[in-house]
Write a structure and sequence with these properties.
There is one protein chain. The protein is an alpha+beta fold. Among the domains are: about 200 residues, no CATH class; about 170 residues, no CATH class. The protein has 15 helices and 24 strands. Strands 3-4-5-6-7 form a five-stranded mixed β-sheet, with no helix packed on it. The protein has a five-stranded antiparallel β-sheet with strand order 16-17-18-19-24, with no helix packed on it. Strand 22 and strand 23 form a beta hairpin. Helix 5 runs antiparallel to helix 7, helix 12 runs antiparallel to helix 13 and helix 14 packs across helix 15. It is rod-shaped.
Length: about 725
Amino acid sequence: MKNIIFIISLLILLPNINYAQSELDYEDDINPYFLGDSVDLVFPLLFDFFKSNNGHPATNIQLALIFEERYRNAHPISDYEAAIANAQRAKLLFGRARDLIDEREVRRNAWYYPNFTNQFKRNGKPEVEFDSVRVIHEKGLKEADSFLTYMPAIHQNFMKMVEHYDLSSKNFVRINGDYNSLKDIYLLYDAELSQRFELVRNSYDSTLIYFKKYKEAANDYPPFNLNQQLAFKEIQTYRLDGLVIQTDFLVDEIELWDYSKWIVQVQKLIETEIDQLRKDIIEIESKLASSFSEMDNWTPNDSIDVDPIEKKSIYKIRKYDLNSPVANVFQYKDDKLDLMNAQKSLAVYDTAIDISNQVKLYTINRVFQQTIALENQLKKYNSEIEMSNLNKNKVFYKKYYGGIEDFKEYFKSEEGELLNIRKETANRLKRQIIEQFEKPFSQEIPCYRRIQFDWQNLEYQYDSLAKNIAFINFSKTNVNELEYFGGYYLNADSVPQGFYGAKNGTTVSWYNAVSSNYKSNKAWQKITAMNVVGGGDLNYLLYESHIDSLDFRNQIVVSNEKGQIKNKIKVDTQEKPVELVALRNSSLQLAFYQGDGLGNAVWPNTLTIAKFHPDSTDYSIKEIDINGKYEGVFQTDAGIIILSSSEDQKNIFATLLDVDFNELKKSSFSFSAATEINYYYQLSDESLHLISKSEKGHFVFNDNLSLRYADIPVSKEGI
């Protein structure tokens, strides 16, 4: 029965091998292998023989030696399972051999133990002592038992070390996958992430603990000679270092990423810089709120801190979050405070009498442009919100804005706030520009001999005017503070006659009637534009038509400060003059002509431009398509901009030209209401104004032909 149990136990431990040999003779078929160098080849035969001869003494010890060699040569870690199985087999068979082999067995069957001695008789029979066999099986039994006793603890601690390091690295990798940058970790750090950090750190610390236990268990078993040490690598670059999951633990120097040290460093920075940054954010919000509260009750000359935050505070926030909505809202509020202060300060101009219109205009325009710049910044901030992780400062949003969604609404609501400031500033500009245009016509009426003067704006019709009164509808001042004026009077036959003059205050220095190209009382005259350039000369465009025929003439007239005619240029065009301007950075000037000179009611869409020098009768002329009736001209760094309108007065067309009047760009704008344009005015390349004297009708463009402001809704934009 014992034999049966022993064989069953051994069969469980041994591999399943089936050889077809039916009868084996130990002496003839197996023993010769132990006399040569082919012991490895004997195992299948030996084990097959053992299955039916398990009580054969030599078979037990020879099999034990084979299994002993196998477990000793196996790697105790990587081949642990096989090594343990072979050690168990060796222990079992060495114990069996101890019971079966005695002195009598060795003497009788010395031939079966040739590998236990180095001495042989002349007939080749080995000389074997029982003690040499006994020493082998006793030592083998002891060492196999020792291996089975100590190796499980060594292997278990080793595997625990590997398992915990694997867990630590995998959790670290998962954090890398969930957080795109180290800055995200800083700003999104919360209780949940803290727990994930602890998982990494605890697993890593367990790795070191089990390595120590592994080394201690190995020291208790001297035959285990894997003298391994740990080497540590610092994680310096997030999402680059520490991501290698497979680590070779079977080398002499095992390299580990120091996850614990990295976590300590990150948490230390969070507890210092990031926590302080969050305190700074609350302090900044408080300072801004205080300044806005004071601004709501602003009165002239109030001393309000319009720059309550240091720029380095914004930089510090952006250091950890480049497009931070928090930094954006702080920057926006800081800029808005400055804008509101500038906008409210304009109130002093409402009653100021010692500040020139020009200074007022440029000051108001700076606020207008400042508003547009802040509106563009707000659009940028709004667009960046969707690309930002608002969870980074969700506690802040909750406390001061009601939550993330309410914070988003704050940015959107500010668009309306800025629009109101822009409207208010634009209205100031409009009032100031109209005042500047109408100021000359609000002066005291000048006196000159028996001539009766009166002011007349251009839009009034002739038939509404009295006879024999010189109506002034142009006023220009030269560099010598001499004010030129010009216009026309209606004679007894209601024929308009042109005049021009110069004055200081109400005192007229000189007055000249415009000479005619036709016989007396046969010329219908009108000065349509005046301009002052150079050293102070006066230029004007003169339109004359014969009252009894269809003949008409266009002239450019140049006069000096004393009213003496310096030059007359006859311009060959069938259109009426509409504008006279000096070409920027040039001694040349431009005269614009448009419409049918005979007065046909056809809405124009082309403009004729004459380029001339005031001292020459030569000129060049070119016709360009501007889509509608001329409304104004602006000279910018981008080129010459012509603005025109459609017949229904609901469309404005913008045409950009080079200095040779070649078209560079066009744009158009459609509005919901018709608007009559009375004035155009250029404050800067970014501030080009078309203005109606009515309540509505103010349009502001820039040199890129973009509409920057309109007090009438835009229904369509673009060609």
